[in-house]
Every structure is written in structure tokens, then in C-alpha cells.
Amino acid sequence: MNNNIPFQTIDWSVIPKTVHPGESGTAWWQTIQFPGLRIRIVEYSPGYLADHWCKKGHIVHCLQGAFVSVLQSGENFELSEGMSYVVTDDLSTHRSVSATGVKLLIIDGDFLKSSV
Question: What SUPFAM superfamilies does this protein's entry cite (predicted)?
Fold first, then answer.
């Protein structure tokens, strides 16, 4: 399998948004998929609470607004514009909450698979 990605630009204004209802609120995803790599712009509405606990690894960068990443262990991490987090698959089960809405850049893929 060829995982080489040639240089290219992404015009997010032409990438369609898909709707993902949360337990409360809504998420909109714009997704680019390559072999073993997914890049998304994700927006959460005010009052958003994810409808599931996620075990997947991500690199998440907050572009606008703020949100809380809630770990199943009970820890909460608030991120605001300009902040990021990174986690490997299966290491920290988490879900997102946003009181005021947020816009995120999220990157995930095979490179974040756990070696445990």
C-alpha cells in the first residue's frame, strides 16, 4: 500500500459538512481521508456533549472557542483557542463537552496506534 501523500492544499470551504448529533448539541465534520490518515475540521454547537466515549487517538488543536475533554478516569482538561492535546489509541478514553461552541482541527490515523 502506498501511503505517500503528494503536496496539496485543502480548501475547507468546498469540503462538505456532515452532521453528527451529540447526546446534546450537534457536531459538524469536514473530513479529508487518506490511507491511514484522517484530517477533520470539527465544530461543536453550544451545549454539545459527545454521545459516546472515544478510545481513538487524536491530535486536537482548538481553532476557536473552548471545550473540555473529559477523561473516563474523571479528569477534565479545558482547552481554548491556540491549545492542543495529543493521545494514543486506547490510552485515555475521553469525550468532549462545549458550553459555548468550538472549532477544532483533528488529526488521527495509524501513527497513533498503541504499542502496548
Answer: RmlC-like cupins (SSF51182)
Residue 83's closest CA among 104, 101, 53? 104
Q: Is the pTM of this model over 0.85?
A: yes
Phi, psi for 82 (deg, rounded to 5):
90, -5
Which phi and psi (to 5°) does residue 12 adopt? -60, -20
Q: Rounded to an integer, what distance in angstroms lies between the CA atom of residue 78 and that of residue 45? A: 16
Nearest to 103 by CA among 24, 54, 30, 7: 30
Instruction: Specify which residues 26 forms β-bridges with.
Output: 21
Taking only the tens place, the pLDDT of each residue in 15-39 is 999 999 999 999 999 999 999 999 9
